[in-house]
Amino acid sequence: LNAEGGRYGNALQAAAYQGKESVVYLLLKRGAEVNAKGGYYGNALQAAASRGNESVVQLLLERGAEVNAKGGRFGNALKAAKAFNRESIVQLLLTHGADPNLRSRQHDT
């Protein structure tokens, strides 16, 4: 269920990226780690945020996704959403406590 590998890091991240809300829900219900790290996007929240999958972002946040988790290509979910001009996702993340001043080693802006 939490096996790692491939571009997306794990099944949850792949489903989140593709906007498959029902699959994300099922994986979480079956015990997938909501904050599992790995892959290009770093975690499922960042993958969903980058694609503008608002319902998936909401579900992940409701299930305990760390809104300020660092990692992946963009550094965090807020930066991923900003990179693709996903304004509704940016607002959703900010509402859930995303830090607009958060810095990471790889992404210092």
From TrEMBL:
Repeat (ANK) residue spans along the chain: 7-39, 40-72
A Pfam cross-reference name: Ank_2
PANTHER family (UniProt xref): ANK_REP_REGION DOMAIN-CONTAINING PROTEIN, ANKYRIN-1-LIKE-RELATED
InterPro entries, per the entry: Ank_Repeat/CDKN_Inhibitor, Ankyrin_rpt, Ankyrin_rpt-contain_sf
Signal sequence, start to end: none
Phylogenetic placement of the source organism: Eukaryota, Fungi, Dikarya, Ascomycota, Pezizomycotina
Cellular component terms (Gene Ontology): nucleus
PROSITE patterns: ANK_REP_REGION, ANK_REPEAT
Key words, A-Z: ANK repeat, Repeat
Keyword Coiled coil included in the entry's annotation: no
Protein name: Uncharacterized protein
